[in-house]
Design a protein that fits this description.
Elements lengths: L4 H8 L6 E5 L5 H8 L5 E6 L2 H14 L5 E5 L11 E10 H9 L9 E8 L1 H10 L2 E11 L2 E10 L8 H6 L7 H24 L5 H15 L6 H11 L12 E4 L8 E5 L4 H9 L4 E4 L16 H8 L2 E4 L2 H5 L4 H12 L2 E6 L14 E5 L6 H11 L6 E3 L7 E8 L4 H6 L4 E5 L3 H10 L2 E4 L2 H5 L1 H13 L4 E4 L11
Helix pairs in contact: 1-2, 4-5, 7-8
């Protein structure tokens, strides 16, 4: 079976692990090609229209693959049985249609490899994917005749974020690839024409658009250099440093804004081991959740990680309570995780502190809808959800319905949990007096560990910064581990 260049590029991103579903299959050329080349074990060719389905069935029959390819009439994935499907391909559709199909199929979140080839509104699709917890693992351009397309390899990782307009326009391309370079240059030319048209009309200011065009030009030419200040500003966009608590010390804690970034390491904490890893990986910026300088330094010693950083010429940006509070930040991540592990109502309250009119807050409140959920069962499932760490708990006297969340060390907020009529509270670093207070108030209290309730921050920050600084190597620290051991 002969496929065009566009479908061949899609085929190159199929995992080859099991059954592939081709949504909007048309003539079933792609499924037949995958089977003939031994790339997958089976396939589903789906389409909503009778004509394409008849054509697909004829193609499958001609290839003698009726026992390997199921031809199914389906609106998107609605009639597709998810069992055994490892890959879903959506090629030749508009971005909005692709997003609607994904949104209607939550089973795609269970490790399914997505191959997406939008025909229109690629920036819209990139933004939608990241807002809904997906990540573009790889993006490549391909020419077919006089058209050039983008093909995205996508998977669900659960971290929702609002990406910048720059990333929405430039994507996740490796611009050393000739086709990808060609795609970006063509897109930049298109935006320039739009800007010139706006200027001629005199109706709008083109400053922001022109700035984006300049960014794309520099990226495509390989002349764009990112500074520590650029990275700070990107973090500030999604987790404003001005929202930090009075006792916190978030921000640029080591280094200077105008230092050029050669590599980035993300971590929960900055330790000597993390600094050593950064040196080995030639990363001159570490972005962490916890502040590397928390209390005033009255003596400088190489035993202090902040001094070690300065001596090694490594900058540090730390985003602590701003990331806890931010939309899609750590507390929202935990709420999302709970929503995937337990049955919930889908609603959440963004505050458990004394400022209910504030735009940001110290935690979240969610509603559990499962019947008969015991404290023991919830503790076991929370331990699995957070990565196998130890979970201590004190059973309360109420059915577990209304649940408060606060990442890190949130024991001091128990009184606000009580004021919000919560039945249970999930946090870390719980002190003895807080356990006693929870028991006396009948609240089920879970201590899931400071490390385990915040370790996802490193991966989240890495995902964000990969979109913000194309061409810069960004990694999550392998040395970011729990230093506490249990017997």
């Amino acid at each position: 079976m002969i496929c065009d260049n566009r479908l061949l590029k899609c085929a190159s991103m199929v995992s080859g692990k099991g059954i592939v579903c081709d949504v909007g299959t048309d003539h079933a050329y792609l499924p037949v090609y995958l089977l003939e080349k031994g790339i997958c074990a089976g396939a589903v060719a789906g389409d909503i229209a009778d004509g394409p389905l008849e054509a697909a069935a004829a193609t499958v029959k001609k290839a003698g693959l009726e026992d390997k390819i199921d031809v199914v009439k389906s609106d998107g994935l609605k009639n597709i049985k998810p069992e055994g499907i490892t890959d879903v391909v959506m090629a030749g559709m508009g971005a909005e249609t692709i997003s609607e199909i994904i949104a209607a199929a939550p089973w795609l979140e269970n490790g399914v490899n997505l191959v997406l080839q939008p025909m229109t509104k690629e920036p819209y699709l990139r933004k939608w994917l990241y807002e809904n917890g997906y990540i573009i693992v790889k993006e490549e351009a391909v020419s077919d005749g006089d058209r050039i397309y983008t093909v995205m390899n996508v998977r669900f990782d659960g971290f929702r974020m609002t990406v910048s307009d720059n990333f929405a326009e430039t994507g996740m391309f490796d611009l050393s690839d000739e086709e990808s370079f060609k795609y970006i240059r063509k897109h930049a030319a298109k935006l320039k024409n739009v800007s010139e048209g706006i200027r001629r009309s005199g109706k709008e200011d083109t400053a922001d658009l022109d700035k984006m065009i300049c960014f794309i030009d520099e990226i495509s030419k390989g002349t764009k250099k990112f500074t520590v200040g650029d990275i700070y500003d990107e973090i500030d966009r999604i987790a404003p440093f001005r929202t930090q608590d009075d006792w916190d010390n978030s921000g640029l804690l080591v280094g200077d804004r105008d230092t050029e970034v050669t590599g980035i390491l993300t971590a929960l904490d900055i330790t000597h081991e993390t600094i050593g890893e950064a040196i080995a990986k030639k990363a001159n910026l570490i972005v962490s959740h916890h502040p590397v300088i928390f209390r005033p330094l009255k003596h400088l010693s190489m035993s202090d990680p902040a001094v070690h950083l300065a001596a090694a010429g490594i900058s540090a940006i730390c985003v602590h309570t701003p990331l806890d509070k931010a939309v899609h930040g750590i507390n929202d991540m935990i709420a999302d995780m709970i929503g995937r592990e337990f049955s919930v109502s889908g609603t959440r309250t963004p505050m458990i502190s004394e400022s209910p009119d504030s735009a940001d807050g110290d935690g979240r409140i969610i509603e559990i809808t499962e019947e008969g959920l015991s404290a023991e069962d919830m503790a076991r499932r929370l331990g699995k959800m957070f990565g196998g760490g130890p979970v201590r708990f004190a059973p309360g006297m109420r059915k577990i319905r209304r649940v408060a969340i606060c990442s890190g060390s949130g024991g001091s907020l128990l009184s606000f949990v009580s004021k919000n009529n919560c039945d249970a509270y999930i946090t870390g670093d719980v002190k003895h007096d807080v356990w006693l207070s929870a028991v006396s108030e009948g609240i089920t209290l879970f201590d899931c560990g400071h490390f385990y309730t915040e370790r996802m921050s490193a991966e989240y920050l890495a995902k964000l910064l990969k979109t913000a600084a194309p061409g810069v190597n960004v990694e999550t620290a392998a040395t970011c581990t729990d230093v506490v051991r249990c017997i």
